[in-house]
Specification:
Chain lengths: ~375, ~400
């Protein structure tokens, strides 16, 4: 089946998807309760979309198409409140965070949906180790070529999103020393990583995709686990590197940081992306995963090394006018606070571990954080 | 080398470990072959052992009832630790369901037992015991299947409410019996109000003290399990000395300890291997307490009571399912999963008997058949219900 045509959408519109953890109230382990929660949620109109995910201990929520920070945040809060209330009725807690700090992947149950069963059959333990929780942000693009341009122009900013959203320092009961251990699980998949460098949709759809499809390795865009991938049926590009933050406030801020950044990039004041930009891509990404905002990235154009924190703060200054135009000042303020003062949620979770002395305490803190802002 | 005269004593001493070993072996094999709940196998072995009247397998051996109480107290502590009081605030229907179902079951069983020629105090006791559900059977099966989900969660909470109501009802009946038979108000109050209030108080006290002790210094997870286990042993000893209800005290201890924890390092589920060993003993012991010669007398009564009790639990759960945020199907499965009812009821009776409550012995004889069926098949029903609810881990590899 050839790749469907890219459905044009209004530029810079946003859609946010969050994968959330379902946690029991007893020992804070993941709870295979998605069916129960979804059943209860079906009884009332839901302020967005909620769907089952790969395992019974995860649900995914999605916002409507949004244009500004205020309404996006309002909807995310409404979704959060609806979920928390439903969870309270069923004795289930919800939490953000890219990984569950101590769940054991081999105990997770896979949803009985044919696609999930097929994935589980193909990937074996990888599918279960994939019990990780990410935030996906869709940005509307007016044309497919614009989508590919944005996708590649963003390559040097991908570490920002990894570092700012990182909230998965603990995995399988230990501190991994990574700020985002979640991405290590994603990288294990054969079709993860970066998209091939092509700026023309025609070349991408009829050249690359058709060839890949003829190999039998992929059937649809869904089979690619790229950091950023085009989503032709929505007319968007989808940024997939973010861990689910602990709060919806941070999630909305990340989405609108991306929106303002895209607005800036679309003015094409920066040198255009090229294949050589990707020479430093995996190194930069590793730095962001491992050290978060303290990581160092290499600017692919100038080959200069700069701390991710500095680079975020410099970028904030550059894109401020676009944020003003989009009404995203609130989002940028939150990002600035994160980069300059408070740190990401990975460091906050480590503080919680230091205070409570247990990984259960970390989950309990994450559960509270989702209910109300932490910092 | 033991001399020949030591042989009877040696045989007697060896009976227990050998029977337990056999029970363990059978439990593993049948679980592997047909996924039979392990506890059902333990009960079966205990019953056979009691048929052969093996030496040493009677309650005459001192220490065994105490050990059984420790085993069940550990389980009740774990059950209490799983109770989330805030859930009842967020979903009051759960509390209404638990208390309402207990009341309905009491009334229904009392009414049904009226068809058989039984004295009123026996009927009251039977009704009170029928309210309870077996925490041992339910927790073991749920842990064995790594069960998690709405049915599991509800079964735990309802089981705790059922047990609390059963203890309260039984103690009040005991008090009433003392009053009616001796006219001694002091004895009556001692037999009921004192036991209830002091047992809860002791449990609450430990529930506050132990977490405080654990908080005072950082303690490894394994050691937390150890401290809680020792606290339960202490509690059981105190309950014996003060003639309290160790079961009620342990349940209160668990509930309060959970609420008081600040850092959430947890006891290992089921108290690890030591817990397994004690549970194994508990089920064999409980089954060995049943007297084969009494089994045939209560067949029809047993069947009628099982039907009445199960119907009450199932119907109440189905009726309240949607109101409490679940589905009728899960309500049905929750009701069925509450089927096991023996270990708790038998130990409760045993204890009342030791404290001089005479009707207890007769009730145990009358209910022997019911207990037998519930013990043997109850865990199987729970297991099948949890499986049907797709809450067990073994659904899909």
């Amino acid at each position: 089946m050839p790749l469907e045509t890219f459905k044009s959408s209004q530029a810079l519109t946003l859609g946010v998807e969050l994968e959330l953890q379902l946690v029991n109230t007893y020992d804070m382990d993941l709870s295979s309760s998605a069916n129960d929660l979804l059943e209860l949620l079906r009884r009332k109109p839901f302020p967005g979309v909620v769907t089952p995910e790969m395992t019974q201990s995860m649900i995914e929520i999605a916002t409507d198409v949004q244009t500004g920070h205020g309404p996006l945040l309002a909807q995310l809060r409404e979704i959060r409140d609806t979920l928390v209330t439903a969870g309270d009725r069923l004795n289930i807690e919800l939490a953000g965070g890219g990984t569950h700090p101590f769940q054991r992947w081999f105990e997770q149950r896979i949803f009985a949906k044919p696609r999930f069963e097929q994935i589980s059959g193909l990937y074996g333990y990888l599918a279960k180790q994939f019990t990780v929780f990410g935030q996906h942000v869709h940005v509307g693009c007016s044309s497919p070529d614009e989508a590919l341009y944005l996708l590649h122009a963003l390559n040097r900013y991908v570490p920002h999103f990894i570092a700012l959203s990182a909230s998965s320092p603990f995995f399988q009961g230990v501190d991994t020393l990574f700020d985002s251990a979640r991405l290590n699980s994603v990288f294990a998949f054969p079709l993860s990583g970066r998209a091939p460098f092509m700026l023309s949709w025609d070349e991408f759809a009829h050249g690359y995709f058709t060839k890949m499809e003829s190999t039998g390795v992929v059937k649809s865009m869904k089979d690619f686990y790229w950091d950023i991938r085009p989503k032709p049926e929505y007319g968007t590009i989808e940024l997939r590197v973010c861990d689910t933050p602990l709060t919806v406030e941070r999630a909305a801020a990340l989405a609108c940081y991306l929106q303002s950044l895209c607005a800036y990039l679309l003015e094409r004041n920066e040198p255009p992306p090229e294949e050589d930009d990707y020479l430093v891509y995996t190194y930069n990404r590793f730095q962001a995963c491992r050290f978060g905002l303290d990581g160092t990235l290499v600017n692919p154009k100038t080959r200069e090394q700069i701390s991710i924190r500095e680079d975020v703060l410099a970028t904030l200054r550059r894109i401020a006018p676009h944020a003003d135009a989009l009404g995203a000042q609130g989002a940028l303020t939150e990002i600035e606070r994160t980069a300059a003062r408070d740190g990401n949620h990975a460091s906050w979770l480590r503080e919680q571990y230091a205070q409570s002395g247990s990984v259960q305490g970390v989950v309990a803190a994450a559960v509270q954080a989702l209910r109300g802002p932490v910092n | 080398m033991p001399t020949l005269t030591d042989m009877p004593f040696l045989l007697q001493s060896m009976a227990w470990p050998l029977v337990l070993l056999l029970a363990w072996f059978l439990g593993e094999r049948l679980h592997e072959a047909w996924q039979m709940p392990r506890v059902s196998s333990y009960v079966a072995v205990g019953l056979v052992a009691s048929l052969f009247n093996l030496p040493g397998l009677t309650d005459a051996v001192p220490g065994l009832p105490f050990l059984a109480n420790v085993a069940l107290s550990l389980i009740l502590f774990e059950l209490g630790y799983r109770i989330h009081l805030r859930w009842f605030r967020h979903n009051p229907w759960m509390l209404v369901l638990g208390l309402g179902e207990s009341a309905v079951t009491f009334v229904v069983v009392y009414a049904v037992s009226g068809w058989f020629a039984l004295p009123t105090d026996t009927r009251l006791i039977i009704a009170a015991l029928s309210v309870s559900a077996s925490p041992a059977g339910i927790l073991r099966v749920a842990n064995e299947m790594r069960s998690a989900g709405q049915v599991t969660e509800r079964v735990m909470h309802l089981c705790a409410i059922n047990c609390l109501v059963a203890v309260f009802a039984l103690k009040l009946i005991t008090g009433y019996w003392y009053l009616a038979n001796s006219g001694d108000l002091t004895l009556a109050v001692f037999g009921s109000v004192h036991v209830l209030a002091t047992s809860v108080a002791v449990g609450v006290l430990l529930g506050v003290a132990v977490p405080a002790l654990l908080r005072a210094q950082r303690i490894e997870e394994r050691d937390v399990t150890l401290v809680f286990a020792l606290a339960v042993v202490l509690l059981t000893t105190m309950a014996y000395g003060l003639k309290l209800s160790p079961l009620l005290a342990a349940l209160s201890f668990g509930i309060v300890a959970r609420e008081r924890r600040v850092h959430l390092t947890n006891a290992q589920r089921g108290f690890g291997t030591a817990g397994d060993l004690l549970t194994l003993f508990l089920f064999v012991y409980i089954a060995a307490l049943l007297d084969w010669s009494e089994l045939h007398t209560g067949v029809w009564l047993g069947l009628a009571l099982i039907v009445a009790r199960t119907a009450s639990k199932v119907l109440c759960n189905v009726a309240a399912a949607r109101l409490s945020g679940s589905t009728e199907r899960k309500g049905l499965l929750t009701g069925l999963a509450l089927t096991p009812m023996s270990a708790f009821a038998i130990l409760l009776l045993e204890q009342s008997r030791q404290h001089g409550f005479e009707p207890a012995h007769q009730v145990l004889a009358t209910l022997a058949f019911m207990m037998l069926l519930q013990e043997l098949l109850g865990p199987l029903v729970t297991q099948r219900a949890l499986k049907a609810a797709a809450e067990t881990h073994l659904t899909k590899a």
